[in-house]
Design brief:
about 700 residues, alpha+beta, seven-stranded mixed beta sheet, five-stranded mixed beta sheet, about 40% helix, globular, DNA damage
Length: about 700
């Protein structure tokens, strides 16, 4: 059975309506593989049948898997949302993003449908007639809170069998004796009285906490006035229990907002989503998913699909008054209207910009990022999975043995400045951080302004040439003796003594060709080379016209991605450190004999470079540790700076007027890539180029 050609089932021109609607792509067997909606069906569907070369690879895979398309016209975008949700739920299409709720998340449930409602921990799909609070991360958190609240709201928690048996023998269970159940099983309270207790519990859990505590305090004072001190003491203890329960739920929104805060962390293949459920201003629960991105979707589309799938199947009470998201979808108004219809009152869908809501969004975002990282680490950390990944890579690249040592290289810069390279090493599928190396690129990969753009391939070639030249040199010096690769003086492995089984470069065919040329130039033939293209996740081999496509769920692809991402992270870290050092150079650095300690003393004494510049030699000598000779040198250096440009300092060493290739008022930094090789970013001093005020340096990420 051949692959369908989209042109064979493309609808005739003009037959597709311009109305809003929902469409279905079906494969050759009639199975629905994708469901989508559009404001204009004609515009959206025509985009699928455009030049295949312009389609995203996953979209191209979808249209070539499908063999037909049909659609249904609706009246409004809200109706389109509802129908899209219904069809996704009915057909479960393989190319739609699907959020599989983790059924392990427990909730606190109240069985309101029973004559004597029961409080219990419940998992799994929601049932009709049951009110849910949560979900919570752990069942013990529910039981701990419930244990505190039962003394205030003594409700039934026992199973139907225990409840029936207690009624038959006329004796309650232990909770009835210790006051944590009102014992409706033996008639201590009526069904109506027990339901009233349960409803008070639900009100408290729903956020009416202040009202409940005020009522209990009023009853306590009344009991004290009536000299019923025993009841007053019991109410006092109840109030304390309620407050202890509230302490376990931190207030995040002071206005008592009901909201769901949603954030995503994505990579090209997967997306992790985290939701914090805030009710009454307090975080009542948290949920998370990791879903495969089986189609080409951005964050806005993930938000829309999340809302339709998660809220579409839940009761109206599960939809909050606000849904805070990182990015609004294109039809945000229609989605908000649809959620409003589900809730029965207005639902705001918006992106928080500032304040407590923005801060909580950042917290949820960090949780999503950690969730995605942990998901990947769980896959990479298992020995069996690592072995499978290495075997899949060997099979895909035609290797005789699994690549036990993998090296990956990446280049980082900002518009060609501070160009750096990174080398990371994975041995047996695990990072070997002691073997990581970094390179400051100063050759062809650097940029001469006005001549050409950034040349990543030249920078990559320089890094590989330097790395493997060292490898050849150290191998030659070892002369094949036992202990090859070990430094005889230190007993430690030499820095570049071992060649990789597999060399990975971050990039596609151009980067691979450049790397292959370097290996050929150096005469290295025993290293397998490949490149991983970031956008399409394709594996490129030297001299091949087409890439190797690993399955999207392949453990081998996951390992290559992780190696590539680690190389990128390590390169970014070094780039930030170099950029920080370059930007923190100051006019005081040029003063001979003035070390870091006395520079800091000067700035601390005067407060800013501007005030130091205005000081006399005598004023400078008032600083402890600064003698007359040093004070004169500082005054001379800063006096030269002051004469350069009116209204602001210029870089030390520049002429008073801009020459060819220079500009006035560039700033205090001297963009010398060799600056600060023996200084850490944390020790450097930065200044505002306009005011001379001391700034805090951005040291970036720490070194490995």
């Amino acid at each position: 059975m051949g692959v369908p050609d989209p042109a064979t089932y493309r609808p005739a021109t003009g037959t597709i309506p311009e109305s809003p609607g929902v469409y279905r792509f079906r494969d050759q067997t009639g199975r629905v593989v994708y469901v989508g909606k559009a404001k204009s069906l004609r515009s959206r569907l025509n985009s699928y049948f455009a030049d295949p070369g312009g389609l995203h690879p996953r979209t191209y895979q979808m249209v070539t898997t499908a063999a037909s398309v049909d659609w249904t016209v609706v009246g409004t975008e809200v109706e389109a949302l509802q129908l899209e949700y219904s069809w996704i739920k009915e057909y479960d299409p393989r190319f739609n993003v699907r959020y599989r709720d983790d059924k392990s998340y427990p909730s606190l449930a109240v069985t309101l449908y029973e004559e004597y409602p029961r409080l219990l921990v419940m998992r799994g799909p929601k049932r009709k007639g049951v009110r849910y609070f949560g979900p919570y991360s752990h069942a013990w958190a529910i039981r701990e809170t419930l244990d505190l609240l039962l003394r205030v709201f003594p409700s039934r928690t026992c199973s139907a069998g225990v409840f029936k048996r207690s009624g038959q023998i006329g004796r309650p269970c232990l909770l009835g004796y210790i006051g944590k159940c009102s014992a409706p099983c033996v008639g201590r309270v009526s069904a109506e009285e027990h339901r009233a207790i349960v409803e008070d519990f639900c009100d408290f859990m729903a956020g009416k906490t202040d009202q409940m505590i005020r009522r209990l305090e009023k009853d306590m004072r009344a009991a004290s006035d009536d000299l019923d001190f025993e009841r007053a003491a019991r109410l006092r203890d109840d109030i304390g229990a309620l407050r202890r329960a509230l302490e376990k739920q931190a207030v995040v929104f002071g206005d008592g907002t009901d909201a769901d805060v949603v954030a995503f962390a994505e990579d090209p293949l997967e997306a992790a989503v985290q939701v914090f459920h805030v009710r009454g201003g307090r975080v009542r629960g948290q949920r998370g998913w990791v879903t495969e991105k089986v189609s080409d979707v951005d964050t806005g589309q993930l938000v829309e699909q999340f809302c339709t799938q998660i809220y579409g199947g839940e009761d109206s009470e599960a939809v909050p008054r606000e849904v805070l998201v990182p990015q609004l979808p294109e039809d945000a108004e229609a989605l908000s209207s649809w959620l409003t219809g589900l809730r029965g009152s207005r639902v705001d869908l918006r992106v928080p910009q500032r304040g407590d809501k923005r801060a909580l969004m950042e917290t949820v975002q960090r949780n999503a990022g950690q969730s995605l990282t942990q998901h990947k680490l769980r896959r990479a950390g298992d020995l069996t999975v690592r072995s499978q990944a290495l075997a899949e890579i060997a099979d895909a690249l035609g290797l005789d043995d699994a690549p036990l040592r993998i090296e990956c290289y990446d280049i980082s810069h900002v518009q060609g400045t501070d160009v750096v390279g990174s080398m990371v090493v994975f041995e047996d599928g695990v990072p070997r951080k002691s073997e990581y190396r970094r390179f400051a690129v100063r050759g062809e990969g650097t940029i001469v302004e006005g001549e050409r753009g950034p040349d990543d391939t030249a920078a990559m070639a320089e890094v590989l040439r330097r790395r493997f030249a060292r490898y050849l040199s150290e191998r030659e010096s070892s002369s094949g003796v036992v202990g090859e690769g070990i430094d005889p003086e230190t007993g430690k492995p030499k820095k570049f003594a071992y060649a990789p089984n597999l060399l990975v470069v971050d990039g596609g065919a151009p980067q691979v060709s450049s790397a292959a040329a370097v290996l050929s130039e150096l005469g290295i033939t025993d290293v397998v080379l490949c490149g991983l293209a970031k956008r399409l996740e394709e594996v490129w081999l030297p001299g091949e016209d087409y890439p190797v496509i690993l399955p999207r769920t392949s453990e081998g692809l996951y390992l290559l991605q992780r190696v590539r991402d680690e190389a990128h992270r390590f390169a970014i870290t070094y780039h930030r450190q170099k950029r920080s050092k370059r930007m923190t150079a100051s006019a005081l650095d040029s003063v001979p004999g003035l070390g870091e300690t006395r520079r800091k003393a000067l700035l601390k004494h005067f407060g800013s470079l501007k005030k130091l510049r205005a000081a006399s030699v005598q004023d400078i000598t008032d600083v402890p540790g600064i003698g007359l000779h040093t004070a004169q040198a500082v005054h001379t250096a800063l006096g030269g700076v002051a004469a350069n440009a009116e209204g602001g300092p210029a870089t030390v060493g520049q002429s008073s007027s801009p020459g060819e290739g220079e500009s006035a008022g560039v700033g205090l930094g001297e963009p010398d890539s060799s600056y600060g090789e023996n200084r850490s970013a944390g020790d450097a001093i930065a200044f505002d180029a306009a005011t001379g005020e001391v700034l805090e340096p951005d040291a970036g990420e720490g070194q490995q």
